[in-house]
Amino acid sequence: MSLHPNRPAKLVFSYLFSGEGQGRLLDAEAALDWLKLPAHPETEYIWLHFDSPHGIEEHWLQYLELSMAFRDTLQEERRSSRLTRRHHGLFAVMNDVNYDASGKMTEVSTLWISLRQRWLLSAWDKPLRSVDELIKLIDAEHAFPSPLSLVTQLLSEQADVLVEILHDVANAANEIEEKLARNQLPKRSSLGHFRRDLIRLQRLLAPEPDSLFRIVSRPPKWAKDEELDYLHFATENFSVAMRDMLNLQERIRLLEEDIAARVGEKTNHSLFILTSVTVISLPMTVVGALFGMNVGGLPFKGSSIGFWVLFLISSIMTLIAAWLVFRLLRED
User: Fold this and answer.
1) Rg, C-alpha atoms of the chain
2) How much is the pLDDT for 295?
């Protein structure tokens, strides 16, 4: 699904959060009326979510000091997850992935976020599971006291998705290790797409650790201590997940090398058997070819025991060749 910069972005939903962090759904007219207020209640904030980051109409943006990073990032090809500080607010890009029943990555969705103390603006190119889960928590009256608490919850949802994917890939690697332990030879291709997906996930899902730690160490003035603790916790979860991902990539690489080595060993063994059969049958083949020329001067041509003499000679040569082959086999 491509973005449509020429059409206006539609407001998917908006939530107004009270001082206790409880969110209630607003329609577009009520959300715009709240933005028009000359002074907002100090503890309230609003979340506006659009179906595209392009084409957000001016009657929304005139009440929001939208970061230029939000506009600039829409022109970038790079969509790696990140959370950065921009002046008095924050800007974030988050990605989500869907896996099919066979464990293959099917599509990637991106969420763009810009937030200040009293508002959060977000837009996606496709629906995200993490946003859907966040909406369920809001509807269940879970408290989110600030826009930053919404973002940290999205980070936690994203980390949970990453951990779930790593768990599934680790189970697949365990099954392959069990097959190798039983001397069964799985296909390398069964691991190849997992390794490619992990590299892609590392690029898309994992936020830039340095930027997260910079925000924790130098947060916006309006950020509360408990929200920073939660952000730090989400950052640690991502760091652990990233270490697990790197370890899992290395484990898959070693499994692929083990499978490749066993395939090579099996191929060499098969080639040795074919070569041995060829060497053992070579004397009979040579003798048969020589005495099958049907030209004058062939020995034993008129002898009544000529066949048995040649058979005895070729049998002795075959036994010698077989003895040499099996001797080499025992030495190996």
Assistant:
1) 35
2) 67
